[in-house]
Amino acid sequence: MDKPVDKPVDKAVEKDVDEAVETATDRVEFETMLLSRHSHLHAPRTRVGAGGLDRSAYVLLTRIRMHGPMSIGQLTDAFGLDASTLNRQTAAMLRSGVVERIADPDGGIARKFRITEEGERRLEADRSFNIGGLERIMEHWPAEDVIRFADFLERFNRDIERLEGRPWPRA
User: Fold this and answer.
1) pTM of this prediction?
2) Bridge partners of residue 70, in order along the sequence
């Protein structure tokens, strides 16, 4: 049986591939910057004055909804933020009535934050607003493109979570 023969590497082709990847990475950086700029089209902070949640409350409530009641320590581990930042954010959430402090249901010492009915209502209202905005943005996309885009975003986020060591719970 013949051994496979290694083809000589065409340095020009290798350089073109490297430049294409660099260009694609440059485009990803640029497009993610723009995405954050355009988030007003679907993000909750556009609704803050109208009873919507600010970005930190939206993200924290989403995590607590998926995980169940969480302590400051668990939130620190989940987000990689210091306790003082989370204390400020959760204090604002307590004042607005979207979370409440409860005894640890598992009998632990630390008190935990649980979403209130008001928090559930506001989180769902913001999610509906966000989804509606995304539907308007992608209304002319074929369904297959929306699915592929969602798959790529999930892959992108999972790789970030892998590098940070902080996986996000998914349904």
Assistant:
1) 0.78
2) 113
